Amino acid sequence: MNNKTKILLCCLTAVASLGMSACRDFDEVNTNPTAASQEQVLPEYLINRAIIAAQQNPHIAERAFVLYWKTAGHQHRSGGLSLGGFSDGWSSDYYGRMSTESLKPLYAAISLIEQRVKAGSARPYDNDLLQVARIWRAYMLSELCDNFGVVAINGYDGANPTYVGAKEAYTFMLKELKEAAASLSKEKVSLPNEVKDLDRAYGYDAAKWRAYANSLRMRLAMRLSEVDEATAKANFEEAAAAGGILTADARFAVQEKDGWDDLTGVMSRQWNHQWISSTYNNLVLGLGGVESKKQLTDARYAEHIKDADYLGVRYDKHFPLKTTDPSAGFYMDGLPGTIDPRAYKTFIITGDTENPEFSFYPTWNKSATTTEYKLKQADDKDKDFKTIETRYTWNAWVNGAWGDLYAINDLLQVGTMPRLANKYRNSTSKRIFFAEWETYFLIAEAAVRGWTVPMSGKEAYEKGIRASFAYQGAGFVDDYLTSKSYNRVGTSVAWDHTEEPAATVTMKCKNGYTDKMEDYTYHYPDKNSRLYKKAMNDHLTKIITQKFIANTPWLPLETWNDHRRLGLPFFETPAVEKSLDNMPQLTASSYPTVAIDYYPQRLPLPSSIESGNKPGYESALKVLGGADKDKVFTPLYWAKKK
């Protein structure tokens, strides 16, 4: 065991023996040989522990990142939380881990440094470590608060906590970020390499931490834009003026590694299909007007690429239609004529095993490469109707309850839809917590709102898109930025093109039952089917659409947050061919007119809080609005209410 490991274990032992007290003197550390003395407890190890734990080990990541955030944020096709379901066990695992392994070490590190400053024993660089701990604490508090709607700011001093709502929590976090960013060293401070190495994001580079703190403050300020614009505007403008623009080299990202620990990839579990979602697909199809034949130049793709106005094969007896998905009922028997160039980088074409980014998960069987599936007769599920070849096709079928259609449609299998690229699944990438493109899209939104920001909305918007394209290694960005082509929900790319699409457009399809080509009247989502009523192609819709695409797959909590806050981008409703057990409010008759409670709003608090801290749980219920509000469909303070 090396010395760093020994010291880290000593720090954690000391923290545990202290009950993670933020006010108890560290002189009370047990003096037994396995415990650390006050001098041995190093704040940099505690901060390191807090950042690593936030990365999430595979057990926590599968539950929180994949099954909760990516599902609720519509970054992949899955049921669960998107259909109103949740697991108390999953929530408890996530909440407990983030509380004890990330937040408690941060509170302990802050207390330790403050005591050393008071005692005159602080090291020259301890001030920067203190501010970093405050900044990361603000992020971790925001993560918990955005999941549960309440958070225990005073919950880490050894006593049972009380809970505050998002309004009070955001006041605290914004103040912390402002003060910490301003207090970071302006001049370069010399740190030992062994200390710098323990900051896996920035190596304790104060300038980068300041930019991150200001960008994070902008993110949290914008979260309040619909409920407290004055507070949101003041904080956003201050943070932007103080240097809140991240650059690619200041992206907050932590390197993943193979194995099973806190640094293992958050999307690495083989049994998670990570299929493309209908939401993502509707946003990228047609967007930017870049032809697939320009993007896919290898000969193996040529015969599969369809015309831009072709919707696919119409199987309206085999696919659910009781959904607001404008693409419902179609099977794309090839590759789309035009699509956002980032789509082929993020999700890999079905059956395209020659692509080095094709994911062969699960490796213990061949389901990822199986490409032939059966449709049964619609009126006789015991008889075969047609064999479907899914290789080199591009489909994303709506989630939800398909009812009797399950029995006649065998296409809901691993190998039938594009799945997430292998680079996101094999623990070789850096997990992104905050990227430069998000900063630009935040500034663009602020500009649209009329706030004072460092650049125009158009400039920020286009910089955000360029940054996203650069990260993905996608081409044709100049053509893309000038495109007036609409995607499936009626949004285009070009900033100056805000003309709304016509309600309908004539496109081509093949009748799946006669094999004849037909004209089809395609309907863009109308007001009743959208939570955001103002437009489909205004500047705000463009910004959040681009933000969603850019933040896929690393920032699903942010895509969920934007949808809860604004109703953007367009999320289709789940299919309701039969009733949904956890979402009875969405029915076969009500689905055409959407409501906020067709989409999950939060996670109920873990039952362990109610059983282990009754007064604390009661304080949480009070903030939420009563005993009947600890539910999936209770909106958060900053979210849309109707």
Observed structural traits:
642 residues, alpha+beta, 38% helix
Q: Overview of this structure, please?
A:
This protein has 642 residues and is an alpha+beta fold. It is 38% helix and 9% strand. The chain is built from 20 helices and 14 strands. The chain has helices spanning 3-17, 43-55, 58-72, 88-119, 126-148, 166-183, 193-196, 206-223, 229-241, 278-284, 292-295, 343-346, 405-408, 436-448, 457-472, 477-481, 539-551, 556-566, 607-612, 614-624; strands at 150-151, 164-165, 252-255, 310-314, 330-331, 347-348, 372-377, 380-389, 400-401, 419-420, 430-434, 504-511, 517-523, 575-576. The strands form 6 sheets. The protein has a 4-stranded mixed beta sheet with strand order 5-4-12-13, with no helix packed on it. A two-stranded antiparallel sheet has the order 1-2. Strand 7 (372-377) and strand 8 form a beta hairpin. Helix 5 (126-148) runs antiparallel to helix 6, helix 6 packs antiparallel against helix 8 and helix 8 (206-223) crosses helix 14 (436-448). The radius of gyration is 25 Å and the shape is globular.
